[in-house]
């Protein structure tokens, strides 16, 4: 009997250790928060995601469209509903801005769900729900959707909303979804008759304080100055690809933009701003990006939604597309989100770590992921995605009421394909593909192809000058240690260079693009796997130059994005059987900088979070969480900053200002 008891004890201990080991390497994880009603009362009524102000926030919309409210609750993996869309009568395009407002209020328990909104198959918003509370009102997700104006101006289209994930006996949550669109015409007015009396609402990103006249600087993209630098280069430099010289090394001639009013305006870069005279811009010309004339979806078309479900690297979904022969510019916009075993892809150790420790292989394949694009099977570009953390991720209390960066408005990524039009404008169908390098289940992808057309020609001429798109190089450095310890480093870098010309009725223009990608990731297991330290830095730098056939640089822009991330988790045994205590510290940021001529803008959005929680399996039992976040936004000579602090579901601090800090010295 004692022998059998000993064997049973050893078996139990072995199973317990196996489960505990599996628990260690699976962190961070996703948790379901079943909260007692008494705990829910301590949670703020409204969730917040800090984002930069929209250009239209200081104006009153000319009209609006409210779609019927929809109630989502089905015991299946996804819910999909469609509506008929037409713009409001008497409020037709052109519009200076269009804003989508999305609100989802959910009750009872549910797994936080990913949501997509499509118009005629074109995705215009990807968001997610928050963890439910007894009376939670999730914020209006406000997104500028002006870039989709060519679709929004059409009638009798289908607008589709889909909620991914599941509802079952445990997760019985029901979500009410409200969608509205705000249209801003050419003669919209400010929200207040006096700028001095303006009071901005905190939830919309403004606060009473110094009132800065944004009317001169606001705009979707652009230059404030009426003059910009033109760089002269010779023909041999032009054909060698991207001109990589700095402005200080170039031969500079400053000329007024009006020297090129016809060809550049037709190209879609320079335009008189509608209603400019009423904004104090009479006679000024602003450099900004016009919405595309046509948008073609690269997406699915079945009952499971429009997004492609990527299970592994070999899943490359393609769509055949014929590009109109009068296209003079093309930009591919990619939407992406990661779920399941790849929700925390940046923390996944290599497969060899699992084999060495006799662990079940689930969340592995290393910590490198890239979303790539192919045309006719050839690699043409990729993106390193921002590591969005959903509201149930790591510790749900960290994201109440201030959610993680991008959780309510997941970013999309633009890949400029204009230099490749010489390969596409042949009247044939071309296969556009999307995939994820090293991906494991599962990723949701789709894309929108934005096309600018020559209104005065049925056919334009185009050609490619330079094409360099090698595979991204990935270097992995594993260091194994006794027990569950180990240190794994991943370094990846890549560069693409494209150059091509398009000859339209606006003129002959050469677009050159140089893009650099870098990723550095380290995963360290300590204390027999009880401590896991993840650090990652992503950097993406893109330079775009547009040059006329006369050798003038018409536009030169640099776009820089950085995504630093640090996560440390420590796990301990809980006081109750089969419970554990998880201590977490997180630091992550989204940094974006744009410079073009005399114009520059920057956004720095940073969060610091810490907390602990008791959990059993994937169920959150109790805990605490603290988050501090600061957003700083500079657009030309305008500034905006906002700082918030939250603890255990309560908002403790929310300060914002539009003062610009004076330069030192």
TrEMBL record:
Q: Which Pfam families match?
A: PNGaseA (PF12222)
Does this UniProt record's set of keywords contain Signal?
yes
**Keyword Repeat on entry:** no
Please list which residues make up the signal peptide.
1-22
Superkingdom, according to UniProt? Eukaryota
Q: Where is the Peptide N-acetyl-beta-D-glucosaminyl asparaginase amidase A N-terminal domain?
A: 59-463
Keywords linked to the UniProt accession: Signal
Please identify the protein, giving its name as recorded: Peptide N-acetyl-beta-D-glucosaminyl asparaginase amidase A N-terminal domain-containing protein
Q: Which organism is it from?
A: Nelumbo nucifera
